[in-house]
Write a structure and sequence with these properties.
Blueprint: E1 24-29, H1 37-47, E2 53-58, H2 64-72, E3 83-88, H3 93-99, E4 102-103, H4 105-110, E5 115-119, E6 122-126, H5 129-139, E7 151-155, H6 159-170, E8 175-180, H7 188-195, E9 200-204, H8 208-217, E10 218-223, H9 227-230, E11 243-246, H10 255-262, E12 266-268, H11 270-286, H12 292-301
Parallel strand pairs: 1-2, 1-3, 4-6, 7-8, 7-10, 8-9, 10-11, 11-12
Antiparallel strand pairs: 3-5, 5-6
Length: 308
């Protein structure tokens, strides 16, 4: 959806096309052109009968705080007739955590804010990535009420991996394994594990025997490795019956998905995580719930090769 644009008002960027007469929300980050958030939110608003707009705006690292200050001075901010919230992508999630005056518990322990909502003249920060991961695994048929004492493996140790720790613990994982490049166990996920008092097993990509062992034992596997780095992953061919969620959905199928299929694993596409984190954002912005099933057809239409 596109707005009429009033970038000249309140010092907002001139290339920011936002509507002049209705509530709106945004996705910000760098890059942001590839974002499917406009599809999710636009479809949800239509489903809810709301005449809201949703736009994307590229912001580089270091620009979020100033941008939020400008939005806060915009007419309509206080009464909810202007900006209703922001979906925040990388590299701005750490800045969003700092910029928020009020931060929910999940965002604090994971160290990641992907959603900002106006709150009494300030900004409240939330993490809906956790809900996205939980919802995606459950949609794929994982029954956490019936599955007890299982191993979960996370590929990568960044911000999404930090959210993955909280999600997999919510799903009942009793053993959490993080696969990373550095033997020193550094990265956002390890820091989040300390804040959550979660014991984790660290395995490096170079430890081929250890990697093969934990992958064979895994019930759930979450890949948070960016698409550009997946080709170089030393993934072993193992007999895995795990459910594998790859946060990457473009390109599709990703190298991790191709590997997982070859191992006989069940696949959860990254767009399922996107749907569930998006509907959680919609609820924060609107106060109303939307059925994920109402979002899925439009989102799949926007993703190349989604039927493969």
């Amino acid at each position: 959806m596109s707005g009429l644009g009033f970038g000249f008002m309140s010092g907002l960027p001139k290339n920011l096309a936002i509507p002049a007469a209705c509530p709106f929300a945004l996705v910000v980050g760098d890059p942001v052109e590839h974002s499917r958030s406009p599809v999710i939110h636009g479809t949800a608003y239509q489903e809810l009968g709301l005449k809201w707009d949703f736009v994307k705006h590229q912001l580089s690292a270091g620009q979020l705080g100033h941008f939020l200050d400008k939005l806060r001075t915009q007419p309509g901010f206080e009464d909810g007739t202007a900006c209703r919230g922001l979906a925040v992508t990388m590299p701005l999630k750490p800045e969003a955590l700092t910029a928020a005056t009020y931060v929910d518990g999940l965002a604090k322990v994971t160290g990641a804010v992907n959603t900002l909502v106006p709150a009494i003249g300030e900004w409240a920060g939330f993490n809906t990535d956790v809900a996205g991961i939980v919802g995606a695994f459950r949609h794929a048929g994982f029954d956490d009420a019936q599955t007890k004492s299982f191993t979960a493996v996370i590929l990568g140790s960044g911000a999404t991996a930090a959210s993955g720790l909280a999600a997999l613990r919510e799903l009942g994982a009793t053993r959490l394994v993080i696969v990373s490049r550095q033997p020193q166990a550094t990265g956002r996920a390890f820091a989040a594990a300390q804040r959550m008092r979660l014991p984790v097993t660290a395995v490096t990509w170079q430890d081929t025997a250890g990697l093969a062992s934990v992958l064979e034992q895994a019930t759930l596997i979450l890949s948070t490795v960016p698409a550009g780095a997946q080709e170089k992953l030393p993934l072993p061919q193992v007999a895995s019956r795990a459910i594998v969620l790859d946060a990457v959905y473009d390109p599709w199928p990703s190298p991790v998905v191709t590997w997982a299929r070859g191992c006989g694993a069940s696949i959860v596409p990254g767009w399922e995580m996107l749907i569930y984190q998006g509907v959680a954002q919609v609820k924060l912005f609107t106060g109303r719930e939307v059925n994920p099933a109402a979002i899925r057809p439009a989102l799949l239409d926007s993703i190349p090769n989604s039927g493969i």
